[in-house]
Amino acid sequence: METNPLKITELVLRDAHQSLLATRMRTEDMLPIAEKLDQVGFFSLEMWGGATFDTCIRFLNEDPWERARALKKKMPNTPLQMLLRGQNAVGYRHYADDIVERFVKQSVDVGINIFRIFDALNDFRNIKTAIKTVKKCGETVEGCISYTVSPVHNVELYLEMGKKLEEMGSDILCIKDMAGLLTPDVTKTLITELKKIIKIPIHLHTHATTGLVGMNMQCAIEAGVDMVDTAISSLSMGTSHYATECLVAGLKGTPRDTGLDLDLLEEINDHFTEVKKNYAEFESDFKGVDINILKSQIPGGMISNMENQLKEQNALDKLDEVLKEVPRVRKDMGYPPLVTPTSQIVGSQATLNVLTGERYKIITKETRQCVLGNYGKLPAAIDEELMSKVSADGKVTSCRPADLLEPEWDTVCKELGDKYTSEEDRLTYALFPKVALKFFETRGKPQPKPAAAPATAPATAPATAAAPTTAALTPAGSAVYRVRVNGKDYTVEVSTGGAVGTSPSITVAAPVAAPAASTANGSALVAPLPGSIFSMKCKEGDAVNEGDTVLVMESMKMESEIAAHQSGTIQSILVKEGDSVQTGDELVIIG
Question: Can you give the pTM of this predicted structure?
Answer without folding.
Answer: 0.79
